[in-house]
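Case study.
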Amino acid sequence: MKLTLNKAWFEKKIQVNENYEVGIGVPERIAECTSSANGDAQGQIIDEAFAETLACGTLIEIMRRDQQLTVEKLGTQDED
Amino acid sequence: MSGESNVYLRDRETGQLVEAVLYDSIDQKHLDDHRNQWTPLIVSNGEQHGHWDWRKKWSYYSAQLSYQSFAIECNGQTQGLMIVNTIKRCRIALQANMHLVYVEYLEAAPWNRRNIPNWNGLSGVGTVLIAAAIQLSVDEGNRGRIGLHSLPQADTFYRDKCGMTDLGPDSTYNPHPLRYFEMTEAQAKAFIQ
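After joint prediction, the assembly is written out as follows.
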């Protein structure tokens, strides 16, 4: 992409003493609370990380039950 | 390798235009400047987007073809950053469902948003980045159509300075419904003239 605007355009468009705030985008604290259902990409990152954590925790829980271990025994076994 | 365009910003102290460079890709230098120069000033002021992590955003968006990033450099420093999405669609009835360039994130360096001692403030970062978004829209065959959700304190810039149509608070942007702005082909032509 090439922006080919002459100096006169900038002279006209950027006024002396102008001081606008120009920020765009969802503040991250808000994005963290937002579901990816609205298509927000930042929300998707957070949702994906949460899904990974949830899947990992579920797998450990299934394995614990499969081996008939209590949470305390699983913790001790992990230390061993 | 990113492309470069020669642009200008205005020095707030002297009132003169100064040469700057617009890059059509955020690179490592820009991310380093954000971390080393912007972040300490932003965090100390507790700003609304002070916790935006551009490194994380860039690593996520740069891997996807539908996104493009931009950076402005002047005086050896990164002055502004922007990420856009090229596959979103319009909401204004006149151009409903047509493709546009949607600005996901845009931020100016903290010394360009407020007076900070020993930092040379520059005006025009938003103007140049919006011009870049319009040019990309033209290049993509979208005739200058762009859209964005503005932070509340920036509504005036997009409505009055850029001449975009204000479609009001967007309820799909829960829990904080930022206002959605869209630029038509005619508005883009007026802005770029």
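Observations recorded in class. Helices of chain A lie at 7-13, 28-33, 41-66, 71-79. The mean pLDDT of chain A is 67. We will return to this complex in the next lecture.
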